[in-house]
Amino acid sequence: MSADDETTTDHRTGAGAEPVPDDEPSPEHRRPDGVTDATVEALGKLSEALEVIEDARGSLYRFHRLTGRADLALGEAVELLRAAGHDRIADRIDREVVGRNVIEGRWTFQLVEEYDDGYYAAVRDAERAARDRLVGGRRHLLEAEMKERERTHGLRHHEARPHDGSPHG
Fold first, then answer.
1. Please, what's the b/e burial string for 51-77 (b: 16 or more CB within 10 A of its CB; e: otherwise)?
2. What single-letter DSSP state applies at residue 77?
């Protein structure tokens, strides 16, 4: 067999590959009967939006942690300035900067709480409600269908789902 012969497996059907038993997506990753392509596409876009918001939320938490770390370092700098005999500079930084609100009336934990309880919760709840109503709560149908189109059916490491560890699972 030449190296070229090893690449003759049909990408979509897996023809020519060693069969993998029970190589179908899990029921929770299959489109319910009667659900249109347009609905799956719309839910996919809604899921994408939620994923971007999750990423933004992570950035907000990073901002929260970095700002808190900076404020603690400012407090340490104040103590070091005092120890070095620079009381007036230390007093000014301590008074004007250490513990300061990052925006009017708020520390970063308050920003995180408002984001989580407001915008984030509203989008998360709307996405879940749409999935519940339209596809029985199933997640990532667009991606699951893309996986089915893109994977090499029947080829090891291209299985539809994890196997149970048995030789045939």
1. eebeeebeebeeebeeeeeebeeeeeb
2. H
